[in-house]
């Protein structure tokens, strides 16, 4: 009897705490939603909240500055490294089935051509690079587009980071040259958007500083 009463008491106490915990998360999401609805007005707040979330959720692997800690994780200041591009070109990719159901098959058998395209992509796809011609000849543009910005339902943007791409990576996770990145789909849409905006600022800051 006493055991039954204890169980009932604990149940009541736990139920009493759940709404409070849910309210905390709800309040945070409401705050983020307000910021996102007025991004210009709340630009500084979005940056500060994004930085806090990034440090909490992402910095363990990517480092506080997003540089990837010497190759431990992807360098978020650049869209893609030569090594990562080469790995995907040679092995194919199937990370974002929800957006690109067909995935990407292995593309270029010739190693020298694959290396050339990988370097071309990692440098931001300058038209003067010899890999630009190979990119066109091997039909990379069919899915990723002439400039690498991707095509709807076919392939993602490999030219530069944008909010759509970062959000997709956060929600789906990613597996590639470095290894497996977990999905953050347990976070709210608002949290993911705030983190994505801050992450995008890291790549922009890096480019401005060069």
Main traits of this protein?
single chain, 210 residues, mainly alpha, Cytochrome Bc1 Complex, Chain D, domain 2, two-stranded antiparallel ribbon, 57% helix, disordered N terminus
Secondary structure elements and pairings:
Elements: H1 2-37, H2 43-57, H3 59-62, H4 82-91, H5 111-122, H6 131-137, H7 140-144, H8 163-172, E1 174-175, E2 180-181, H9 189-209
Antiparallel strand pairs: 1-2
Helix pairs in contact: 1-9, 2-9, 4-5, 5-6, 8-9
What does this structure look like?
The structure is a single chain. The chain is mainly alpha-helical and 210 residues long. The protein has two domains: 47-77 and 160-210, Orthogonal Bundle (Cytochrome Bc1 Complex, Chain D, domain 2); 80-159, no CATH class. It is built from nine helices and two strands; from the N terminus they run H-H-H-H-H-H-H-H-E-E-H. The protein has helices spanning 2-37, 43-57, 59-62, 82-91, 111-122, 131-137, 140-144, 163-172, 189-209, and strands spanning 174-175, 180-181. The protein has a two-stranded antiparallel sheet. Strand 1 (174-175) and strand 2 form a beta hairpin. Helix 4 (82-91) crosses helix 5 (111-122), helix 5 (111-122) crosses helix 6 (131-137) and helix 8 (163-172) packs across helix 9. It starts with a helix and ends with a helix. Residues 1-24 have low confidence and may be disordered.
């Amino acid at each position: 009897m006493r055991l039954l009463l204890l169980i009932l008491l604990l149940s009541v106490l736990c139920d009493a705490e759940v709404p409070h915990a849910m309210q905390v998360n709800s309040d945070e999401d409401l705050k983020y939603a307000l910021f996102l609805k007025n991004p210009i007005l709340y630009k500084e707040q979005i940056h500060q909240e994004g930085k806090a979330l990034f440090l909490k959720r992402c910095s363990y692997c990517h480092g506080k500055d997003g540089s990837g800690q010497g190759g431990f994780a992807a360098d978020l200041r650049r869209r893609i490294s030569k090594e990562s591009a080469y790995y995907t070109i040679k092995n194919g990719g199937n990370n974002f089935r929800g957006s690109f159901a067909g995935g990407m098959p292995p593309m270029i058998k010739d190693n020298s051509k694959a290396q050339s395209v990988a370097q071309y992509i990692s440098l931001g796809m300058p038209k003067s690079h010899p890999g630009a011609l190979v990119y066109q000849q091997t039909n990379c543009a069919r899915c990723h587009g002439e400039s690498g910005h991707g095509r709807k339902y076919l392939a993602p943007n490999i030219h530069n980071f944008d909010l759509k791409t970062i959000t997709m990576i956060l929600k789906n996770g990613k597996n590639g040259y470095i290894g497996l990145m977990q999905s953050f789909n347990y976070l709210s849409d608002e949290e993911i958007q705030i983190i994505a905006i801050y992450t995008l600022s890291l790549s922009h800051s890096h480019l401005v500083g060069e």
